[in-house]
Design a protein that fits this description.
Blueprint (H helix, E strand, L loop, with lengths): L1 H33 L17 H7 L9 H10 L4 E3 H4 E5 L13 E4 L4 E2 L2 E2 L5 E3 L1 H11 L6 E4 L7 E3 L6 E3 L3 E6 L5 H9 L1 H11 L9 H5 L2 E3 L3 H38 L1
Parallel strand pairs: 3-9
Antiparallel strand pairs: 1-11, 2-10, 3-6, 4-5, 7-8, 7-10
Length: about 260
Amino acid sequence: DYQAIFDNLVDQHLIELKNANIFYSQAENLLLQELGLKGFKAEEDLSYIVNLSDVKSVRRIDAEYFQPKYEKLIEKIRKYNLKSLGDLASMKKGFEPGSDEYQDDGKLFLRVSSISKNGLIDKDQKYISDELYSKLKNSFEPKKSEILLTKDATPGIAYVVKDLIEGILASGIMRLKLKENIEPEYIALCINSIICQMQIERDAGGSIIVHWKPEQIKNLQIPILPNSIQQKIANLVRRAHEARKKAKELLKEAKQKVEEMISVK
């Protein structure tokens, strides 16, 4: 009967979601373990001394920026072939056509709120006309395997494009195309983990409206582990994505069963 099919689909959906979380946690744990950061605690120092020359060189006077916890983190990962994100990837900012161009349907206009580390979010989605999309797509449509990286409002969310996206990106999102033979899933996981989130927190702090500047993004320090480890990590992230995708499909199927049940009644 419909009820039993529905219950089974929901159970399977929850199992796949749990699997997705397990695979992602395994990837993150492997990354932190390889970098000697398992159990790393970013504790705040109550007092510390800063040289005036350091204040001048970074042009920052907010005390939070100079918290020693940030330097402790960099010190821990320094031996792992650190590279700047700007050396690893070319970057391109999205485009802002203005809210007058928003429509209820048409081609996707992806904003910062549309991006999560697990994929694209459908909630409160905006669209633009097919005509405007045609003009902008060559410059602002994301390509498969590129990393989408948020720089405004909620900076530092990274997601690897898995499928063709018919749409353009807002100016609060950067498109990253890797220059070297490095796993994009590995780089995205590094950005989404404590390794880069602490650097981003340091960069984007000290202002009321949160903006992460392009020069700061380029300077983000990424530890490069051996290819074999990168592949293990990337495979776990991909398995997490597949499980999440399956969970989404099962939920959609369950909703269809509910509609069928209602129509039969």
